[in-house]
Specification:
The two termini are about 15 Å apart. An eight-stranded parallel beta barrel has the order 1-2-3-4-5-6-7-8, surrounded by five helices. The mean pLDDT is about 95. The radius of gyration is 17 Å and the shape is globular. The protein has eleven helices and eight strands. It is of the alpha/beta class and about 250 residues long. The chain binds phosphoenolpyruvate. Phosphoenolpyruvate binds next to strand 8.
Protein backbone atom coordinates (compact mmCIF):
# COMPACT_ATOMS: atom_id res chain seq x y z
CA UNK A 1 0.00 0.00 0.00
CA UNK A 2 1.38 3.44 -0.92
CA UNK A 3 1.98 5.39 2.25
CA UNK A 4 3.15 8.96 1.72
CA UNK A 5 6.52 9.49 3.42
CA UNK A 6 6.64 11.77 6.45
CA UNK A 7 9.80 13.39 7.80
CA UNK A 8 9.46 15.13 11.17
CA UNK A 9 11.92 17.49 12.85
CA UNK A 10 12.18 17.42 16.64
CA UNK A 11 14.17 20.46 17.75
CA UNK A 12 13.98 19.43 21.43
CA UNK A 13 15.20 22.26 23.73
CA UNK A 14 16.88 24.08 20.84
CA UNK A 15 16.01 26.41 18.00
CA UNK A 16 15.53 30.12 17.47
CA UNK A 17 13.52 32.58 15.42
CA UNK A 18 16.40 32.31 12.94
CA UNK A 19 15.88 28.55 12.56
CA UNK A 20 12.12 29.14 12.16
CA UNK A 21 12.91 31.48 9.25
CA UNK A 22 15.25 28.94 7.65
CA UNK A 23 12.56 26.26 7.84
CA UNK A 24 9.88 28.60 6.48
CA UNK A 25 12.09 29.37 3.50
CA UNK A 26 13.18 25.77 2.88
CA UNK A 27 9.69 24.34 3.08
CA UNK A 28 7.96 27.14 1.18
CA UNK A 29 8.29 25.21 -2.08
CA UNK A 30 6.02 22.42 -0.96
CA UNK A 31 8.17 19.32 -0.60
CA UNK A 32 6.52 16.36 -2.30
CA UNK A 33 6.32 14.50 0.96
CA UNK A 34 4.92 15.43 4.37
CA UNK A 35 7.13 17.51 6.69
CA UNK A 36 6.09 18.14 10.27
CA UNK A 37 8.20 20.41 12.46
CA UNK A 38 8.29 20.35 16.26
CA UNK A 39 9.98 23.46 17.65
CA UNK A 40 9.93 24.28 21.35
CA UNK A 41 6.46 25.30 22.53
CA UNK A 42 7.45 28.96 22.67
CA UNK A 43 8.23 28.98 18.94
CA UNK A 44 5.11 27.14 17.75
CA UNK A 45 3.01 30.22 17.14
CA UNK A 46 5.82 32.02 15.27
CA UNK A 47 6.52 29.04 13.03
CA UNK A 48 2.83 28.34 12.44
CA UNK A 49 2.36 31.93 11.23
CA UNK A 50 5.38 31.59 8.94
CA UNK A 51 3.94 28.34 7.52
CA UNK A 52 0.48 29.83 7.07
CA UNK A 53 0.85 30.13 3.31
CA UNK A 54 2.59 26.76 2.99
CA UNK A 55 1.00 23.65 1.56
CA UNK A 56 -1.06 21.41 3.83
CA UNK A 57 1.70 18.81 3.87
CA UNK A 58 3.82 21.13 6.04
CA UNK A 59 2.67 21.17 9.65
CA UNK A 60 3.78 22.51 13.02
CA UNK A 61 3.40 20.59 16.25
CA UNK A 62 4.32 20.49 19.91
CA UNK A 63 6.86 18.12 21.46
CA UNK A 64 4.65 17.34 24.43
CA UNK A 65 1.21 18.05 25.89
CA UNK A 66 -0.27 17.70 29.34
CA UNK A 67 -2.74 14.99 30.29
CA UNK A 68 -5.50 17.56 31.07
CA UNK A 69 -7.03 20.15 28.73
CA UNK A 70 -7.12 23.13 31.15
CA UNK A 71 -6.76 23.95 34.82
CA UNK A 72 -4.38 24.87 37.61
CA UNK A 73 -1.27 23.19 36.22
CA UNK A 74 1.31 25.96 36.16
CA UNK A 75 3.91 25.59 33.45
CA UNK A 76 2.09 22.94 31.43
CA UNK A 77 0.72 23.21 27.88
CA UNK A 78 -2.33 21.33 26.71
CA UNK A 79 -3.37 20.00 23.33
CA UNK A 80 -6.16 22.60 23.20
CA UNK A 81 -3.73 25.46 23.80
CA UNK A 82 -1.36 24.08 21.19
CA UNK A 83 -4.21 23.91 18.69
CA UNK A 84 -5.17 27.48 19.54
CA UNK A 85 -1.75 28.80 18.42
CA UNK A 86 -1.60 26.81 15.19
CA UNK A 87 -0.28 23.34 16.04
CA UNK A 88 -1.96 20.47 14.24
CA UNK A 89 0.18 17.61 15.57
CA UNK A 90 1.87 16.57 18.82
CA UNK A 91 4.65 14.19 19.83
CA UNK A 92 3.66 12.00 22.77
CA UNK A 93 5.81 9.56 24.70
CA UNK A 94 9.24 10.64 23.50
CA UNK A 95 11.82 8.58 25.38
CA UNK A 96 13.33 11.74 26.90
CA UNK A 97 9.92 12.41 28.49
CA UNK A 98 9.55 8.82 29.60
CA UNK A 99 13.06 8.76 31.12
CA UNK A 100 13.63 12.28 32.48
CA UNK A 101 10.03 13.06 33.41
CA UNK A 102 8.95 9.57 34.47
CA UNK A 103 6.13 9.38 31.96
CA UNK A 104 4.37 6.03 32.07
CA UNK A 105 2.79 4.24 29.15
CA UNK A 106 -0.61 4.98 30.74
CA UNK A 107 0.26 8.69 30.83
CA UNK A 108 1.23 8.52 27.18
CA UNK A 109 -2.10 6.84 26.40
CA UNK A 110 -3.93 9.72 28.15
CA UNK A 111 -1.92 12.26 26.17
CA UNK A 112 -2.79 10.45 22.94
CA UNK A 113 -6.48 10.77 23.80
CA UNK A 114 -6.03 14.46 24.69
CA UNK A 115 -4.33 15.12 21.36
CA UNK A 116 -7.10 13.43 19.40
CA UNK A 117 -9.81 15.28 21.35
CA UNK A 118 -8.16 18.56 20.34
CA UNK A 119 -7.80 17.38 16.72
CA UNK A 120 -4.02 17.16 16.86
CA UNK A 121 -2.49 14.16 15.10
CA UNK A 122 -0.26 12.38 17.62
CA UNK A 123 3.10 10.85 16.83
CA UNK A 124 3.39 8.16 19.50
CA UNK A 125 7.02 7.35 20.28
CA UNK A 126 7.99 3.87 21.40
CA UNK A 127 11.30 2.11 21.79
CA UNK A 128 13.42 -0.09 23.99
CA UNK A 129 16.55 0.67 26.01
CA UNK A 130 19.81 -1.11 25.24
CA UNK A 131 19.42 -3.48 28.21
CA UNK A 132 16.00 -4.52 26.95
CA UNK A 133 17.47 -5.38 23.56
CA UNK A 134 20.42 -7.21 25.07
CA UNK A 135 18.00 -9.26 27.16
CA UNK A 136 15.85 -10.08 24.14
CA UNK A 137 12.98 -7.96 25.54
CA UNK A 138 12.78 -5.25 22.86
CA UNK A 139 9.51 -6.45 21.35
CA UNK A 140 7.84 -6.90 24.73
CA UNK A 141 8.76 -3.34 25.74
CA UNK A 142 7.37 -1.87 22.53
CA UNK A 143 4.23 -4.00 22.75
CA UNK A 144 3.56 -2.83 26.32
CA UNK A 145 3.90 0.80 25.18
CA UNK A 146 1.49 0.31 22.28
CA UNK A 147 -0.93 -1.89 24.23
CA UNK A 148 -1.42 0.90 26.81
CA UNK A 149 -2.62 3.21 24.03
CA UNK A 150 -4.79 0.50 22.50
CA UNK A 151 -6.60 -0.30 25.71
CA UNK A 152 -7.10 3.32 26.78
CA UNK A 153 -8.15 4.74 23.41
CA UNK A 154 -9.81 1.72 21.66
CA UNK A 155 -8.68 -0.04 18.52
CA UNK A 156 -9.96 2.78 16.28
CA UNK A 157 -7.05 4.93 17.49
CA UNK A 158 -4.70 3.37 14.92
CA UNK A 159 -6.57 5.09 12.09
CA UNK A 160 -5.67 8.50 13.49
CA UNK A 161 -2.09 8.33 14.72
CA UNK A 162 1.49 7.91 13.55
CA UNK A 163 3.97 5.74 15.45
CA UNK A 164 7.70 6.47 15.72
CA UNK A 165 9.98 3.58 16.63
CA UNK A 166 12.95 5.16 18.37
CA UNK A 167 15.32 2.72 20.06
CA UNK A 168 16.63 4.68 23.05
CA UNK A 169 20.20 3.52 22.43
CA UNK A 170 20.12 5.09 18.96
CA UNK A 171 18.85 8.53 20.00
CA UNK A 172 21.58 11.14 19.90
CA UNK A 173 24.27 8.43 20.01
CA UNK A 174 25.36 8.56 16.38
CA UNK A 175 24.63 4.83 16.20
CA UNK A 176 21.45 4.29 14.23
CA UNK A 177 19.69 0.95 14.14
CA UNK A 178 20.71 -1.00 11.08
CA UNK A 179 18.09 -1.05 8.32
CA UNK A 180 17.50 -4.73 9.18
CA UNK A 181 17.00 -4.05 12.90
CA UNK A 182 14.68 -1.14 12.17
CA UNK A 183 12.69 -3.07 9.54
CA UNK A 184 12.31 -6.05 11.86
CA UNK A 185 10.77 -3.93 14.63
CA UNK A 186 8.65 -1.90 12.22
CA UNK A 187 7.25 -5.10 10.84
CA UNK A 188 6.54 -6.37 14.37
CA UNK A 189 4.74 -3.10 15.16
CA UNK A 190 2.63 -3.39 12.01
CA UNK A 191 1.70 -6.95 12.95
CA UNK A 192 0.79 -5.86 16.50
CA UNK A 193 -1.48 -3.16 15.09
CA UNK A 194 -2.91 -5.64 12.58
CA UNK A 195 -4.10 -7.76 15.47
CA UNK A 196 -6.04 -4.77 16.82
CA UNK A 197 -7.15 -3.07 13.60
CA UNK A 198 -6.26 -4.73 10.31
CA UNK A 199 -7.22 -1.92 7.88
CA UNK A 200 -5.36 0.65 9.97
CA UNK A 201 -2.23 -1.49 10.03
CA UNK A 202 -1.89 -1.12 6.26
CA UNK A 203 -2.30 2.65 6.23
CA UNK A 204 -0.54 3.74 9.41
CA UNK A 205 2.81 5.45 8.95
CA UNK A 206 5.66 4.07 11.01
CA UNK A 207 8.60 6.44 11.40
CA UNK A 208 12.09 5.47 12.43
CA UNK A 209 14.03 7.77 14.78
CA UNK A 210 17.54 7.54 16.20
CA UNK A 211 20.65 9.14 14.67
CA UNK A 212 19.10 9.53 11.22
CA UNK A 213 21.28 11.56 8.86
CA UNK A 214 21.61 12.14 5.15
CA UNK A 215 23.99 9.15 4.82
CA UNK A 216 21.79 6.49 6.40
CA UNK A 217 18.34 7.83 5.43
CA UNK A 218 18.32 6.33 1.94
CA UNK A 219 18.89 2.75 3.03
CA UNK A 220 16.47 3.04 5.96
CA UNK A 221 13.64 4.45 3.83
CA UNK A 222 14.04 1.63 1.32
CA UNK A 223 12.77 -0.84 3.95
CA UNK A 224 9.16 -1.84 3.28
CA UNK A 225 7.77 -0.91 6.70
CA UNK A 226 9.70 2.35 7.23
CA UNK A 227 7.55 5.28 6.09
CA UNK A 228 9.67 8.18 7.21
CA UNK A 229 11.71 9.61 10.04
CA UNK A 230 11.64 11.50 13.29
CA UNK A 231 14.87 13.49 13.21
CA UNK A 232 16.47 15.10 16.26
CA UNK A 233 20.04 16.40 16.04
CA UNK A 234 20.20 16.59 12.24
CA UNK A 235 17.04 18.70 12.15
CA UNK A 236 18.93 21.63 13.70
CA UNK A 237 20.84 22.09 10.46
CA UNK A 238 18.46 23.07 7.68
CA UNK A 239 20.65 21.60 4.95
CA UNK A 240 20.97 18.25 6.72
CA UNK A 241 17.22 18.17 7.28
CA UNK A 242 16.63 19.09 3.63
CA UNK A 243 18.93 16.25 2.53
CA UNK A 244 16.99 13.74 4.65
CA UNK A 245 13.70 14.98 3.19
CA UNK A 246 15.19 14.54 -0.28
CA UNK A 247 16.31 10.98 0.52
CA UNK A 248 12.79 10.15 1.67
CA UNK A 249 11.33 11.67 -1.50
CA UNK A 250 13.72 9.75 -3.75
CA UNK A 251 13.09 6.55 -1.81
CA UNK A 252 9.37 6.98 -2.35
CA UNK A 253 9.79 7.58 -6.06
CA UNK A 254 11.83 4.38 -6.61
C1 LIG B 1 14.78 12.19 18.65
O1 LIG B 1 15.07 12.86 19.63
O2 LIG B 1 13.61 11.93 18.41
C2 LIG B 1 15.86 11.71 17.80
C3 LIG B 1 15.60 10.81 16.92
O3 LIG B 1 17.12 12.28 18.00
P1 LIG B 1 18.43 12.05 17.09
O4 LIG B 1 17.99 12.15 15.65
O5 LIG B 1 19.33 13.15 17.50
O6 LIG B 1 18.95 10.70 17.43
Amino acid sequence: MGRRPLVAANWKLNGSIGLCKQYAEKLSNAPQIDCWVFPSAVHVSTLAKMFKESAANVRVGVQNIYTEPTGAFTGENSAELARDVGATTAIVGHSERRIHFMESSQGVAHKTAQALDAELTPIICVGEQLDDRDEGQAEEVVEEQLEAVNSHCSTAVWQHVTVAYEPVWAIGSGIAATPEQAQEMHNRIRVMIKNWNEPASKAIRLLYGGSVNSRNAGELISQPDIDGFLVGGASLDIDSFGDIVEQARIGDAL
